[in-house]
Amino acid sequence: TDVPVLTIDGPSGAGKGTVSRLIAKRLGWHFLDSGAIYRALAWAVRRRGVDLDDEDAVARVASDMKLEFVCNDAVRVIVDGEDVTDRLATEDVGRIASKIAAYPKVRQALLEKQRAFRRPPGLVADGRDMGTVVFPDAPCKVFLTASAEERARRRFLQLKAQGLDVNLDQIIKDLEERDRRDRERKESPLVPAGDAVVIDSSNLTVDEVVERILARLPQAL
Ligand code: C5P
Questions:
Q1: Would the annotation count 35 as a binding residue?
Q2: Where are the coiled-coil regions (predicted)?
Q3: Which ipTM value was assigned to this complex?
């Protein structure tokens, strides 16, 4: 555990993914997109026809599923041998992910899978509970937020760019519903770690956020 970790937590659409990827690249560190793990599980659960209300059954899939992140130009997510990368971004998968992410047994089953990403020279970990639960000893923790309107707008543009047929009002509704569930759940709720620095990205560019975080890093290590 002397491998350094930079945790970047926050609600959907705050810019964590973009910022984390850029920082990992700049530092030459590994990158963990923990949301993709929950989404991959959501996909596997739906694929296997597992009852979403059955916590034990969902947790079994979480332990069984063979998950691989393959890094070529971009990261591909492979579940049980199938490349599911392009299916994970949909609101439908996001909704299922957020539902099953509330199950303590599911979170427990995914804990070691996530910690395995901590390899030299370092890790940038993007999620909801990276700083609070998965890597509580991380030397540098960021909680990235933005206003709900701004987050919905970014998500809208992102999905549209992927060629998906999207509706802004529906996205705002989904986003608020998902945030509420992530915040109010008993197990690993979405809250800043006590030792996290909170950055509001509503009025910042991606580069400004990256620079702010990188500026804090040397002191933290
Ligand atoms: O970040 P992303 O939108 O891909 O995450 C999908 C869902 O997975 C979130 O809404 C959240 O419920 C869940 N999640 C989580 N803990 C994480 C990452 C994601 O509960 N560390």
A1: no
A2: none
A3: 0.97
